[in-house]
Each structure stands twice: as C-alpha cells, then as structure tokens.
Amino acid sequence: MDTTDALVALSKAMPKTELHLHIEGTFEPEQMFAIAQRNQVDLKYHSVDALKAAYQFTNLQDFLDLYYQGMSVLLHEVDFYDLTMAYLHKMHSENVVHVEIFFDPQGHLSRGVAFAEQVNGIHRALQDAKQQWGMTFKLIMSFLRHLSEESAFETLELAKPFLPLIDGVGLDSSEVGHPPEKFLRVFAACKQLGLKVTAHAGEEGPPEYVWQAIEQIGVDRIDHGNRALEDDKLIEEIKKRNLTLTVCPLSNLKLCVVTDMTEHPIKKMLSLGLQATVNSDDPAYFGGYMNDNYASLIRQTNINKEELLKLAKNGITGSWMDEETKTHHLNQLEQLFA
Ligand code: HPA
Ligand SMILES: [Zn+2]
Q1: Domain ranges of the chain
Q2: Which residue, 88, 222, 266, 282, has most beta carbons within 10 Å?
Q3: Contact in structure between 330 and 316 (CB atoms under 8 Å)
C-alpha cells in the first residue's frame, strides 16, 4: 500500500466527529422519492436520475434552491426520524463517534410542519443511535438568515418548550446581504437561555461577517470561515479566542468556494495554527460523507499523517462533548496513530 492509501485507510479507521451537518442535506434522492410517495407529495423532478442530474451548482444559492425543494416532502415526525436514522447508520459505519447536527425549523414551519414533529423525530433517532452504538450528539437549531430577525424570534418562542432537547443555535442559508449583525438581539436572547452559539460566516461572505460573528454575536465556533484567510488580523483573533472552524471540503468544491480540491486551504489553515476540522455539510448533495471528505483531502492536498491526526483531534476538542469523553477519544486517536 502506498502512503496515500495507508493514510486514507487510517482516516477511515479513526474515531471521527461531525460538527457541521445539516440533517436536511443528508436527504438521498432514493429516500426523498420514497417519502414523497408515502406523503403523496409531488416532486418537481420525476426520477432519481433527473434529480441527481440537477446537482450542479455554481454558488450557494443554486444549491439552496434545490435543498428547500427537497426538504418539502418532510411532513411528519416519522419522516424526520427516518431521515436522521439513515444518516446515523452511515456515520456509525464510518466510525463517527459524535455528531452535532443542524436542523432548519423555519424551512418546515413555513410549510405548516409543527416544531414538535421536527425536533421529536430528529431527537428520537439521535437517542436510538446513542443507545445502540454509544454515539454521542448535540442538536443545533439554525435560523435562516434570508428571513427577518423577527421570524427568528418567533422560532425561538416555538422552540422554548423543547429547549431540553436543543444544545445550540446556528445561522445558515443565503449569506451575502445577510450579515450576522442582523441577528444580534436574537442570539443574545439565545445565550441568555444557556444555548451554545455558532454561525456560518466567511463561506461566501466577506471577512467582515466573520468579525461580526465573533465580536458582535460572540460565537463559540465558526462554520466554514474560509474567507477569514483574507485578513491577517482576523486570523490572529480567531487563534486568540481558540475558535474552531468547521470546514467542509466537498461542499466548498461543489459550491465553487474553491475551484479545485488541490487548492483547498485546509493545509494552510493548519499551518497558520487555526483549529480546522473536516465536515460534510450537506453530503447527499455534495457527493460525499465524512470518509469521502477525508479521502478527497488526503488524495488531493497531500496532507500528511501529522496533519490528519491534528484534524481528527480538532474535531474532538472543538466539539461540545464533555471533557471526559474528549479525553477518551483523544487517547484512542493517539494510540491509533502511534
Ligand atoms: O453550506 C451551507 N451554507 C449556508 N446555508 C446552508 N444550509 C444548508 N447548507 C448550507
Ligand atoms: Zn452548512
């Protein structure tokens, strides 16, 4: 086996975390059609192949248009359960030991699907995975940034009876034109409630949006963060605050955030001392789950064994799991890489 193949094998075997994953982005076309049929909902595309052929994106908005269409077949608690369970089965088979997943309540509330149907279905699957395999989890409710702050506040009100099931809040959807500062007050309210806070920033939006996420929102983590590399002071600030970046290589490629995987900046992030992690974002749409993201990086950016170990460790230290569990997984990693 040459070194690259050996590293890919190691990346498959190592215990992994997923810190940036939209559950609605795990909707595989086959399952989408099955649930559409079960719910008697019409999809715009008439076959799995026709739908897959549409997965050609030139930017984030191209993808989002399809993503919202796809999720429109989710109506009942069992749909959210089945979607989440299918994803968790895959992650278990890939040695993922801990997941922190986003869901987009407003993407479902707008279609008349109650908050309870969504959160109960997703959470029940997460609990079942924990019971069956010991896979730990956090659940993050994400606000849609193309909607108003008022709508985010309404969503927070609806979420209040379910806060014991929710660990954090995020900010996603169309980035440019919707800076973090638009949601200042609602994030402050979330923090008051004891929720962790993260935000997509610097995927397509400028470094200024990453500054706002850090200084105005006070995020615990940054989702993507690619464009932070354009600003040296910002890089220093992220390091000073020890903030983890949840980087998504195949997503970056599919949404043209990078033009080619050989140009992906994750190696540079590591060399600058940034806490980069590897994540899959919307794997059903972007052509790969956790192991595919690692394999793609290993094969095309020449990351070495030391860098691979650092990425895996960052995924553990940057997660919101308890300290004891972190230590356990870090020890496992050290042993595997020794
Ligand atoms: O990658 C993403 N960026 C912004 N919003 C999203 N919603 C799902 N995936 C994404
Ligand atoms: Zn995302």
Answers
A1: 3-333
A2: 222
A3: yes
Task: Check if the beta carbon of residue 308 is closer than 8 Å to that of residue 16.
Answer: no
Alpha-carbon distance of 53 to 59, in angstroms, equals 16
pLDDT at 2 over 90: no
What average pLDDT does the structure give for the chain? 97
Q: What is the ipTM of this complex?
A: 0.96
- Whether residue 173 has its Cβ less than 6 Å from ligand 1: yes
Q: Are 326 and 316 in contact (CB under 8 A)?
A: yes
Catalytic positions are 203
Q: Cα(first)–Cα(last) distance of the chain, in Å?
A: 18
3-333: which CATH topology? TIM Barrel (3.20.20)
Q: Which residues pair with 169 in a beta bridge?
A: 141, 197
Q: Which residue lies with its CA nearest to atom 1 of ligand 1?
A: 281
Report the C-alpha gap between 186 and 268 in whole angstroms. Answer: 34
Question: Does the global pTM surpass 0.95?
Answer: yes
Cα–Cα distance measured from residue 133 to residue 98, given in angstroms and rounded to the nearest whole number: 11
| CB of 254 closer than 6 angstroms to any ligand 1 atom | no
Q: Map 269-299 to HEC letters.
A: HHHCCCEEEECCECHHHHCCCHHHHHHHHHH
Question: Is residue 1 exposed (0-12), middle (13-18) or buried (19+ Cβ within 10 Å)?
Answer: exposed
With a 6 A CB cut-off, is 281 part of the ligand 1 pocket? yes
8 A C-beta contact, residue 122 and residue 23: yes
CB atoms within 10 A of CB 229: 18
Tell me if 281 is assigned to a ligand binding site.
yes
Cα–Cα distance for residue pair 280/263, rounded to 1 Å: 18
Query: Is 282 known to sit in a ligand binding site?
Result: yes
Q: What is the pLDDT of residues 248-272, one digit of tens each?
A: 999 999 999 999 999 999 999 999 9
104, pLDDT greater than 70? yes
200 appears as a binding residue in the annotation: yes
* Alpha carbon distance 288, 300 (integer Å): 15
